[in-house]
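Cross-check.
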Amino acid sequence: MSTVKALILLSFLTLVSSDLGFAAEELPPGSLTLQAEIPRGGDFMGFGFDSLWMMNQPSDPALGGGPLVRVNAADNSVTDIPLGSYGKYRAMGIGEGAVWVPATTRDLILRIDPNTNKLVQEIPAQMVESEGNIGVGEGGIWVLTAPSSATRDTVLTRYNPGTGAVEAEIPLPSASAGVVVDFGSVWVTGFENGELYRIDPKSNAVISTIKLHDRPRFIASGESSIWVLNQSDGTVQRIDGKTGEVLATIETIGRLDGGDIVCGGGYVWISAPRTPVAQIDPKTNTLVRHFTGSGPMGDAIRYGAGSLWISGKAIYRIQPPD
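Predicted model, tokenized:
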């Protein structure tokens, strides 16, 4: 076969495989390389100060909220920081010298000092969702709040990380869910309207609205982009961190009820119930493999110290797939 004919055939096969939508490699969760299993079950994780942080969910609901768990990445040792009187299932933000935990049932943001592992401040905040979504950076703590108990409208409230004082209240066009701070902006997923809002921390105003697929919720930053995981169809949309342009829409694992997304190690990672790990290559904007099957792990995911960390019945430290 001539070189020209070979190239034509190769191009044809590439087009056919693209049109047929050949699936990414699918593997069982047992093929993941487990580096450590830390006996703490729960959800809502963060990574910072050389540690993995997670809200622990006690086995007995009558016990109320569990502790904030800190796992030292150097040796996987665990420190439990009691927060039992503040409710359960709390999200968190890490940065500005602290770990920030929204205690939604008490309408408070808790500031944890990573040097002492102590609760050092309580900031009043009426959060609009039970998850208490929060972003940290650009000199602020950014929390989705409700303007009053009589409405479910969403406001992005900016708090001073030193004093806890309210510095700005920014109305949003839609009920919103996820917050991330990067590329000199604050980014918020407009869950109700299928939008992404970009906020300028200098003017404290929404400066652009980016149309996405339905029910965008989970959000991450990295690889020069913002990445949004849409619950309606499980697609991931990539947004340029400088221009706000939608660069790609990536088919992944289908409709989601829960889930999480994070960047790290040169890849974008998804975790969801029944799919503990799905791996996106940002060089090609494609899903390259996913690990699928019911089991003890899957939902929240973080990257740190060269590892993936996945929540579930325990905290699972995983070697990232090549």
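Residues 101 and 219 are 18 Å apart (CA to CA). The chain has one domain: 34-317. Passed to J.P. for a second look.
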